[in-house]
Amino acid sequence: MGEFFTPWRRKAGCVTLVMACVFMAAWLRSLTTRDQITFGRVDALQAIGSASGTFRWAGLRPPLEAGSPFEWKTAAASKDDDHDHYWKQWGQGMGRMWTLHWRWGWAGFDFGAGTSQSNAGTHHVERWSVPYWFLSSVPILLSAYLLLRKPRHTVPKQTT
């Protein structure tokens, strides 16, 4: 059994399989719980989140309100965690004038950027969302390749 882990490919395959398991656990959690970590400075705010089977990043310049430089929120998932609700919320909230500059979405992927204008000023938002099915399937396929591929046998050189 010890010779199974001798090639570096097998060790890397085990590491990528563990990564796939972590992504799958996060995927399952995101179906019932919404998590978000917010951090930033005075001029920009970053948020990393997980909800509705997706991993999300959002950037806001400048922040809507002054807050703590680091905040972790967790809440029960709701039907309003989908991508369309996020972009509509920006368009209808707090009397802002909303302009969506671009948006692309397909099969759980959602990328976009926009600008809102209100009495407080102009705010630029950018958001990326990647589905967990993609984040877990890539390491699964890579680990299958690394673990199941037969190692090449080299022919020793003959000295004359």
Strand-residue proportion: 35-45%
Taking the sheet with the most strands, its summary is:
7 strands, antiparallel
Order of helices and strands: HEEEEHEEEH
Rounded to an integer, what's the Rg over CA atoms?
22 Å
Order of strands in the sheet with most strands: 4-1-2-3-7-6-5
Principal-axis shape? elongated
What would you call the structural class? alpha+beta
* Number of H/I helices: 3
The helix fraction, in percent, is 25-40%
Mean pLDDT: 84
Number of structural domains: 1
How many beta-strand segments?
A: 7
What is the terminal separation in angstroms? 36 Å
Poorly predicted ranges: none
Structural summary, described in words:
The chain has 160 residues and is of the alpha+beta class. The chain has one domain (2-148). Helices cover 31% and strands 38% of the residues. It contains 3 helices and 7 strands. A 7-stranded antiparallel β-sheet has the order 4-1-2-3-7-6-5. Strand 2 and strand 3 (54-61) form a beta hairpin. Helix 1 packs antiparallel against helix 3. The longest helix is centred in the N-terminal third of the chain and has 23 residues, at 8-30. The chain starts with 7 loop residues before the first helix and ends in a 12-residue tail after the last helix. The relative contact order is 0.19. The mean pLDDT is 84.
How would you sum up this structure in a few lines?
The chain has about 160 residues and is an alpha+beta fold. It has three helices and seven strands; from the N terminus they run H-E-E-E-E-H-E-E-E-H.
Secondary structure elements and pairings:
Layout: H1 8-30, E1 33-40, E2 45-51, E3 54-61, E4 70-76, H2 83-92, E5 97-106, E6 109-118, E7 121-131, H3 132-148
Antiparallel strand pairs: 1-2, 1-4, 2-3, 3-7, 5-6, 6-7
Helix pairs in contact: 1-3
